[in-house]
Amino acid sequence: MVWTVMPDFEEYDEARDQFTWDLPSSYNPAVDFLRKHEDPDRVALEQAYPDGRREQYTFRELDQLSDRLAAGLAGLGVAAGDRVGVVVPQKPQNPIAHLANWKLGAVSVPLTVLFGTDALQYRLDDADTNVAIIDPAVRDDIDAVRDACPALEHVVEIETDAPAGDVHAFEDVLAAPENTDIEPYESTPDTDTAILYTSGSTGPPKGVRHSHALWLGRAAAAYNFFDQGLGPDATVWTPADWAWGAALGGTLFATWHHGGTIVGYPASGFEAEEAFDLLSEFGVTRSFMPATALRMLMDVEDPTAAYDLAIKTFAVGGESLTPEIVDWVVKTFDSVTINEFYGQTELNLVVANNSNWFDTQPGSMGKPLPGYDLTILDPEAADSGVADPLPSDELGEIAVRPHDRSVFFDEYWNMPEKTAAKEVDGWFVTGDLARRDDDGYVWFKSRKDDVIITSGYRVGPMEVESAILEHPDVVQAGVIGVPDDTRGEIIKAYVETAEDAPARERLRSEIQSAVRAHLAEYEYPREIEFADALPQTTSGKIRRKELQEWDADDSAAGGQP
């Protein structure tokens, strides 16, 4: 029997009342994702490359390859509990590495190839990573930081026949063992699975230690925000890096848990036409598409006429949807839904829309998913260690309580004080501000520590950013609060524009007028500075801390926007 974590429920209230995690006593994700399916020779991975190459991998082939890699890693000394970094983009070696780790009982450390030397060194060293499996794109960076990572004994490079220096070729490790009859490590839902690093948008990145139950929580969430459309007939693709938890767990492994096919494509950047080509070629039915990517898709004229599309659901997370995106999806596609979802690296994916259960409210993240309780706490009380729930429609801090603790994080790696601070009276606090209306919809406002207080008003930067992004000549926007003698703080926006944007003074005036029209008078940016590109995390979030540093540098130099 093929077991999945989220059976069908016709009604939302029914699911909330009847769903239980009921996690199995024995659980290894490598076995779950690869060995339970009735037809192991079905295609699990459609792999595409920018140079036109195409590959297919069945569940059986992925099982055999990960067996071989597990045996090869064991030959290098990898054992249960060891940390193995995976610095590979959307290529087959990425999931094969994770699956091999779990067959050995090792712990994965997913890292993006977009990291520079400082970011790689910090994470590899902080996690005491024993082995790193890397893409050639990061070889030079790995060489530069290796001496500063004393636990890093072995580096395995993919797509190379004869790597220079003290590095193993992936194919050699794969071919080395004579005995590849691997017996998967006897693990449970509570066995360590990965250390996932937070984006670091508000401070140094924290290593989040998770157990295997993480993947079951993400599989359940994905089943819902993909409108219960995950299964053997589903083909799923995301442009998001597989180092990002929502892409790795909420897309790739969620799809395999439910028996569907994933599309892999290691793009160096997002191109709208290229994305539509992939959606069309592989008949993608469900796609996790960040809001920024959707805005870029909007530039393609009449895509339903130009491409043969099978898409049924777009899922969006990591940044808020704007009404213009929702309107474009509704007007452009026939019977295609768009569902926003919300989660944290620490707390799984806990809020989502599901068009089969309730109407989507543009701007809302949806409702709490089955298996979780959610409340809105007074943020000041929460900071003092007291859980004080607020009435409906009042702005406060999102707090979540799982019905099974296993689906949440175990701890911050080497940060016991921060781990303890995450829980208040049995609720896990998020640091995110939102309100919950009488119908149960959750409306995100901002990060708690990003709130701008101007003339006594509290303003969430994401709301202002969304309003600025409504302007057709704006590509990206980041909003911060800067000191002001009169108002305490004023709102400042950093804006990346399209190549053919109008003169900056004109555009500045248009943006300010548009924000005034969409939001309250006090929420418009009194200062606007233009930039060629804005600093972002690997998950596409604006690094507001870095924007604050930009402003401080400008002030010190006496510059004016």
- The fraction of residues assigned to DSSP E strands is 15-25%
Judging from the principal axes of the Cα atoms, what is the shape?
globular
CATH domain class of the domain at 57-211? Alpha Beta
CATH architecture of the domain at 57-211: 3-Layer(aba) Sandwich
Spatially, the strands of the biggest sheet line up as: 2-1-11-10-12-13-14-15-16
Can you walk me through this structure?
With 561 residues, this protein is α/β, with parallel strands linked by helices. It has a 9-stranded mixed beta sheet with strand order 2-1-11-10-12-13-14-15-16. Strands 4-3-5-6-7 form a 5-stranded parallel beta sheet. Strand 26, helix 17 (504-518) and strand 27 form a beta-alpha-beta unit. Helix 3 crosses helix 4, helix 5 packs across helix 6 (139-145) and helix 8 (213-225) crosses helix 9 (245-257). The chain is globular.
List the helices and strands and how they pair.
Blueprint: H1 12-18, H2 29-34, E1 43-48, E2 54-58, H3 59-75, E3 83-87, H4 93-104, E4 107-110, H5 117-126, E5 131-134, H6 139-145, E6 154-157, E7 168-169, H7 170-175, E8 192-197, E9 207-211, H8 213-225, E10 235-237, H9 245-257, E11 261-264, H10 272-281, E12 286-288, H11 291-297, H12 303-306, E13 313-316, H13 323-332, E14 337-344, E15 348-352, E16 367-368, E17 372-377, H14 379-383, E18 396-402, E19 411-412, H15 416-421, E20 423-424, E21 427-436, E22 442-447, E23 452-454, E24 457-459, H16 461-469, E25 474-484, E26 488-497, H17 504-518, E27 527-530, H18 544-556
Parallel strand pairs: 1-11, 3-4, 3-5, 5-6, 6-7, 10-11, 10-12, 12-13, 13-14, 26-27
Antiparallel strand pairs: 1-2, 8-9, 9-19, 14-15, 15-16, 17-18, 18-21, 20-21, 21-22, 23-24, 25-26
